[in-house]
Amino acid sequence: MISDHYFTTSLGNIVLGDSLEILRACVADDSVDLIVTSPPYALVRKKEYGGADASEYLEWFRPFAIEFHRVLRDTGSLVINIGGAWNKGFPTRSLVHLKLPVMLVEEHRFHLCQEIFWYNPARIPGPAEWVCIRRNRLKDSVEMVWWLGKTPWPRSSNRRLSIPYSASMQALIKEGNKAQSRPSGHLVTTKISRDNGSAICPNLLAIANTESGSSYLRRCRSKGIKAHPARFPAALPEAFIRMLTDPGDLVIDPFAGSCTTGKVCEDLGRRWICCEREEEYLRGAIERFSGNQDAGSRENPTKYELSHPGVLWSQMVDAPLSPDGGRYFRRDNARSQRTSI
Prior knowledge:
It contains ten helices and eleven strands. It is α/β, with parallel strands linked by helices. The chain has two domains: 2-163 and 200-309, Vaccinia Virus protein VP39 (Rossmann fold); 164-199, no CATH class.
C-alpha cells in the first residue's frame, strides 16, 4: 500500500509505503540521478527490522532491480551498502552479498563501476561465537558498498572526496624523487612527487558508526519514539551524494529507515525521496528535520589508523592450532587456549 507523503520539505518527501509500489506508481522513467541505500540484509538469523533469508534474497531483490534500472537516468548511479552473512552454525560466509552485483550485471544490464569497502572502526567484535569465543575468525568490520551504473559512464568526480596527504607523501613532495623502476616493473616518474593539493581517496572508506549521543537518538528518547536499530552513519551516503550528484539532482533511498539519506540530501541541496514501510521508524525520522541537528562528520572529521598485523608478533607465544579447526571447541578450556602476550 502507498500512503500520502508522510513528511515534506521544499526539497524532498518521506513516503510511507512499500517502496516497490511507490517506484512503480510514482517515479517516472529516466528521472533519478542516484539511488543510494542499505537494503535489509540477507540475514540467517532474522532481526526485528526484517530481511529475507539468504537463500531467498536474490529472488526478493529482482523486482527492485527492474525498477531501479527503469527510473535511473543513463548518467545515474546505484549505490548499495550490504553486509555479509554467515552460514548458520558454521564459521563460513554466505556468498549472497557477492552474488547480488553479479545478478545486477548479468541479468539486469547494470555495470559495476567499483566495489567500495566501508571500514567501521567502532564495530563490536563479531560474530561472537567465532571471533570472541572460539577465536578462529577475524573481527568482521568491513561491509561492501557496490557502485553500479546504468551505463559504463555515470557522472562522477573523485575530486570531491579528496583527502589530505600522508606525512610520508608530504615529505616526498618536499624532497622530490628520482625516476626509477620498481621490482614490479612499474616506472615511478618524478610526477609522483608533484603537489596536487590533496590525495586521491582510496576505495576503503573509514567511517565509524558511532551515534549514541546524536540529536536523532536524543530526540527519539525524549519523545518515547523507537529508533531504527540499523542506521548507517550520515558520512557514508554523503560521500556518494557528493561524488555522484550536483545540487538539484534527485536522490532516492527506497529502504530509508530513519531517513539519514534524506537529511544529508536536504543539507546538500539535493532533491530527495525516502521510502519506508514501517511508520514506527518514520516517527523518529522526521525528528532529523526538527530544529538544530548535529553537524556530524562534516565539522568533526576523524582520521583513523590501521595497525599492521605484525605489530605484536615479537611479543606473542603461539599456542598449537586445534587440529579440528575449533569444531569441537570446549568452553571450559577456552582460557588455556588463549594466546599469551
